[in-house]
Write a structure and sequence with these properties.
It is built from 3 helices and 7 strands. It is α+β, with helices and mostly antiparallel strands. A hairpin with a 4-residue loop joins strand 4 and strand 5. It comes from Streptomyces ovatisporus.
């Protein structure tokens, strides 16, 4: 190179095929990992957002005492309750909630006994141990055992499930079990996303 002359800039050829290939590769990777991406976005929404109260449709039960239908456990009033028909038995009874569309379940609030008020709470038996069965839209079932405290008022439990269409709450044991008593549930509330 002669003194006083400028070096010529090397002009690289424009990537005519490289950029479209990279974009195509990224699109294929995104398509193949769409399930993981959906889970990531659901997790982010669950972690940052506040869960909403989920509406129950058509509650049912194994049986019901007169005046204590399964709908009483979902009416948002803690002075009415569901109880099974037969007194003196404390296992095998259940109340079942269905959802109109599949939901993403986060939390369960349960008020055991006949009321949230202490003086009324002890009138019937109170569930001490329950089993939740979550039914997904695909037909898959998940179970979870919960131990409740023997105290008036609501108790909160983290219950996670995706595409849940039905929840069965089965009584496994009870506090205050006596021959003339029934296990009572004043309120069941589910929280999550639709």
């Amino acid at each position: 190179m002669a003194a006083g002359s400028r070096p010529r800039h090397r002009i690289l050829p424009r990537p005519r095929i490289a950029l479209p290939l990279v974009l195509l590769l990224l699109a294929v990777v995104a398509w193949l990992s769409r399930a993981q991406l959906a889970e990531f976005f659901d997790f982010a929404r669950d972690s940052t957002g506040k869960p909403e109260a989920l509406q129950v449709t058509g509650p049912t039960a194994s049986s019901s005492a007169p005046g204590h239908r399964p709908a009483a456990a979902f009416d948002k009033l803690s002075n009415r309750y569901w109880a099974p028909a037969r007194a003196g038995t404390f296992t095998g009874h259940y109340v079942r909630a269905s959802f109109e569309k599949p939901v993403r379940l986060h939390k369960l609030l349960i008020t055991p006994g006949t009321s949230a008020k202490q003086d009324e709470y002890l009138k019937e038996a109170r569930p001490s141990h329950i089993t939740l069965t979550l039914l997904q839209e695909s037909g898959e079932r998940t179970t979870k055992s919960l131990r409740l405290k023997d105290q008036a008022g609501d108790q909160s439990f983290d219950v996670r499930g995706s595409d849940v269409v039905q929840v069965t709450v089965a009584v496994e044991d009870a506090y205050g079990a006596r021959p003339a008593r029934r296990p009572a549930i004043a309120e069941l509330e589910f929280f999550g996303r639709r």
